[in-house]
Amino acid sequence: MFSGFMMTTWAVATIVAVIAGVVGFFVVLRGSAFPAHAIPKGAFAGAAGASLLGINTLVGLGAFSLLAALGIGRLGRRGRSDVVTALALVLMLALGAAFLSRTSQYEPEIFSLLFGEVLGVSTTELVPVAVIGIACIAAVAVLYRPLMLSSVVPEVAEAKGVRDYRMQMAFLVVVAAATTVTVPVVGALLMFSLMIGPPAAARALTRRPALAMLLAVVIALATVWAAIAISYRSNWPVGFFVGVFGAAAYALGRAGAALRRHGRATT
Fold it and tell me: Model's pTM, two decimal places?
């Protein structure tokens, strides 16, 4: 489990978990779960298109996830954001289906695009994933204060000159970059569960932003590591365990928060 190609698996999964915890914290804080669900579908379509053209799938992932993020952010400014996001989701799924219908890819490769295949990540993918991951962390660090302000008290942020539209666009670009990193590992359909479950559990346990972000990373790491270990032993898809453990983490977080409130009420 800790030799040969598995070392690459552990390294990539660790990067993915850290990115999901950090970026997912703001996804939950800003109520952006729907865009975080839709953007990976754009990435999936891009990966399918890149495979059809015979180019690196990371190129397609990055291009289409960025296109989806910018489209949702731009068009959502002048219309209902939920409608725009839903239409983007449908369009990207349609494009993905069209690309896949023209490719001769065999079934396991298509399956990995949707549900992930962390056990099949190659060493050549490690450096691009690490570079994009570092870029995501750096972007969040630079945007942290204005992004936090616009997420929690948007009226105050506007008064201080922080434009919510600019913050939303910048944040969606970060989500697109995070999607490029995570889709090859956990898949387009389950990527957002890793970006939502652990951060939502962390938010349920504490309201302190820095602590919640750190806790989200820890829970995401535990989720991914446990999913890899059990997937390796059982030969079940890693995406299944990521989804189950992410939902379980949120349920336990809510239960812990409820117990804490009950304890305060009885004292």
Answer: 0.82
